[in-house]
Each structure stands twice: as C-alpha cells, then as structure tokens.
C-alpha cells in the first residue's frame, strides 16, 4: 500500500510531462484501434459469408458474363439445393463524385435471390410486390436512411455498363437479420435489364454475372465445385466455382497492398507508444536515482523498486490507453457515418479493444525494464553521488 501511495504521488510530479505522455499514448492507441477497425471493416463481407453458399463465375475474370443456360445445368449437379444469379449493374446515382452516392446495384433473379439470402429480411407483402413489378427494386435500410428513400420513391440511375437512364420504383426495404448483414445494397429485376437490352443491344441478352448456389451439405462443396466446372470445361465460357467466403476474399485480395500498408502502420504505432512511454519512464527514473538509493539504504527490497518504476509506467500507459480506447468509439462512429456505403459494417470489434489494450500493457512493461534494471544494478554509493 505504501508503494502504491508513492507511485500516485510521483505520477504527477512533472505534470506537463506526464500529461503530454498520456495524451501521446492516447493518440497512438486511438490510431491503432481505428486502423485495426478499418482493416476488419474491409473484410467484413468475408466474415459474413454463409457456410452453405457457393459462387460460380467465369474462370478468367469476374467481369466476363456467363450464359443464362448454365442455370439449369448447375441445378442438376448432385448436392445443389437451389440456384440463383445476379449481375453487377454499376451506374451512377446523383453526383458520382460523392462517395455517399456509391452503393452496390445488383440485377437479380427476383424469384429465387432472397431465398438464398435469408439474412436479408423483407416484409412478405413488399417482396410479393417486388416480384410482380418488373421495374421495381428493394433497397437496404441503411441506404434508405442515408439517401432519405422510402417505399414508392423513384430511384434514377445513369447506366454505364448498361447505358441509358434507368428508373426503378422502390417497393421494399430490407433489414439485416444480424449486425453483420450489409444494408447498403440495391436489388432489382435482371429481366428488366435483359428485356431492355433485347431492344437496344440484342447481342448482350441472356447473360448473367455469376451464379449463387445453396449446397445441401457443406462437406460436399469440393465435389460440387469440381462437378460444376467439369460441365463447362470445354465451353466458350468455362467457370470457376468456389465458396462464398473464397469469392469475397478474392475481392479483398485486390486491395491487399492497402491492407498490408495499414498493418505496417499499426506496427509502427506500437513502436511509437513504446518510445513515448520509455522516454518518460527513463527520465523519471534517472531524476530519482538518489531517491531510490535512499530507499534501498532504508531497507527497501528490489521488488519495491520494481513496483515504483513499473507501477508508474503501468499507470501512465493505462490512463492513456483507456482514454484512447474511449475515443476510438466516437471516431469510428463518425467515420462510419461519413462513408456508410463504402464501409457498410464499420464497428469496433472486441478483439480490436483487447489487442489495443494488450499493446498498451506490453509497452508499459517493456518501457520499465531498462530503467528498473539500471536502478537495481547501480551501487548505493554511486547512486547517491548521481545528479539527475
């Protein structure tokens, strides 16, 4: 208890230095937590992938389409329970230079798509209306809130992959079954696009972007993938079938350089935390060399000295770490609101908090090691003559 009182008394002996150190650690921990949140948000789609869904795409690249005729053949593969498909529409809404106006726009098979994605909850009446009306669409709740959209509104899109002005009527708003579901997407009828292409670009009809399959038994996925790809091996559009998680991972890997850079920055931040804290603890221990010598003369044991130096390091790091973690939440919330469609799921994960806390704790221990060893090894007579 006496040692604790001494630590608390010594903590703010140099108020400005201690305060600046705490602020520095808080900023470093805040930066570390925020960067790790960005990294986890970037791969949120991978973690949200279903264990029983597979994707079939063109084996050369995702941008090449597949014939609609593949659907029935894929459905005949043993182990496949249900097949649907989708296309990437792209296009632009309002000002294309504003990130808030970017959101996924997918043309889907209206009759089967939502059966394959039970995590997207749509009111039964809204879903039935959507299926009946060819130019209707369903949007996510987060997207509707961000763009101030409601059922019955007209959603105009300027096409690029599919040129022209397209107007969709919002007939439903879906909500996520759990927090990991993406609520920033727009779904409309693939047939609406295909019928219009039949009038303007007949050579592009009957093509889809990729197929989605629900597999009866996830253990059969390797056999299903092999069987599907074998059917179209010698066709004009050979396929690559993979799990939904692998499919999502392929998109994340396209930005692997950015992810690796962020990981490197987070490591640098750990070094900054260590250097900032170590500098303060070394200076404090050096200034109190004579005091520690007096304490050793009075009979204080090495573990008392360790407690004094280590306790101060842990307190400074702990206060700065807690402050940094507390600020991570409002910063992440503000950032998530600023880029709601770029990062549909932007939440501080528990593992991020634990990792940031562990970094602060390790830094506190490492920062105290050198000054503690030096103080314990120095002779009392030399310490008494030392000038801090």
- The gross shape turns out to be elongated
Compute the CA-based radius of gyration: 30 Å
Helix/strand-derived category reads alpha+beta
Low-confidence stretches: none
Largest sheet: 10 strands, mixed
Mean pLDDT across every amino acid position: 85
Order of helices and strands: HHHEEHEEHEHEHEEEHEEHEHHHHHH
Task: Indicate the proportion of strand residues.
Answer: 15-25%
Count of helical segments?
Answer: 15
Termini separation comes to 27 Å
Helix content: 40-55%
Number of strands: 12
User: Domains counted in the coordinates: how many?
Assistant: 2
Question: Any overview of this molecule?
Answer:
With 388 residues, this protein is an alpha+beta fold. The chain has 2 domains: 2-44 and 256-385, no CATH class; 60-237, no CATH class. It has 15 helices and 12 strands. It has helices spanning 2-11, 15-42, 44-47, 70-75, 113-116, 124-132, 141-147, 190-200, 221-231, 244-253, 256-287, 289-297, 302-338, 350-377, 380-385; strands at 53-58, 66-67, 80-88, 105-108, 120-121, 136-140, 154-159, 164-176, 186-189, 207-208, 210-215, 239-243. Strands 1, 3, 4, 5, 6, 7, 8, 9, 11 and 12 form a 10-stranded mixed beta sheet that branches. A hairpin with a 4-residue loop joins strand 7 and strand 8 (164-176). The chain starts with a helix and ends with a helix. The model has no long low-confidence stretch (mean pLDDT 85).
């Amino acid at each position: 208890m006496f040692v604790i009182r001494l630590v608390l008394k010594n903590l703010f002996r140099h108020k400005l230095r201690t305060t600046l150190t705490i602020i520095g650690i808080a900023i470093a921990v805040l930066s570390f937590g925020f960067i790790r949140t960005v990294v986890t948000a970037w791969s949120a789609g991978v973690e949200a992938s279903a264990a029983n869904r597979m994707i079939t795409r063109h084996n050369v690249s995702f941008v090449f389409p597949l014939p609609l005729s593949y659907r029935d053949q894929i459905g005949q593969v043993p182990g496949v329970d249900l097949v649907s498909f989708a296309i990437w529409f792209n296009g632009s809404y309002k000002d294309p230079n504003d990130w808030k106006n970017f959101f996924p726009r997918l043309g889907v098979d209206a009759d089967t798509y939502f059966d394959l994605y039970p995590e997207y909850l749509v009111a039964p009446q809204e879903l039935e209306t959507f299926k009946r009306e060819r130019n209707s669409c369903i949007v996510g709740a987060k997207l509707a809130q961000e763009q101030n959209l409601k059922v019955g509104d007209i959603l105009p899109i300027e096409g690029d992959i599919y040129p022209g002005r397209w107007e969709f009527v919002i007939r439903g708003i879906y909500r996520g079954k759990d927090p990991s579901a993406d609520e920033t997407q727009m779904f409309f009828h693939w047939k609406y696009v295909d019928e219009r292409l039949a009038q303007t670009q007949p050579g592009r009809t009957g093509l889809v972007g990729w197929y989605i399959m629900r597999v009866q038994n996830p253990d059969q996925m390797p056999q299903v993938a092999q069987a599907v790809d074998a059917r179209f091996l010698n066709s004009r559009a050979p396929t690559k079938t993979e799990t939904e998680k692998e499919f999502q991972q392929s998109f994340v890997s396209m930005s692997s350089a950015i992810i690796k850079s962020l990981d490197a920055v987070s490591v640098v931040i750990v070094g900054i935390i260590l250097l900032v804290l170590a500098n303060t603890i070394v200076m404090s221990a050096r200034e109190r060399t004579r005091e520690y010598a007096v304490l050793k003369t009075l009979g204080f044991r090495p573990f008392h000295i360790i407690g004094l130096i280590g306790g101060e390091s842990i307190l400074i790091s702990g206060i700065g770490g807690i402050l940094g973690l507390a600020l991570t939440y409002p910063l992440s919330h503000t950032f998530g609101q600023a880029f709601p469609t770029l990062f549909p799921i932007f939440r501080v994960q528990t593992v991020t908090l634990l990792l940031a806390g562990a970094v602060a704790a390790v830094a506190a221990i490492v920062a105290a090691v050198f000054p503690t060893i030096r103080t314990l090894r120095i002779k009392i007579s030399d310490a008494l003559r030392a000038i801090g």
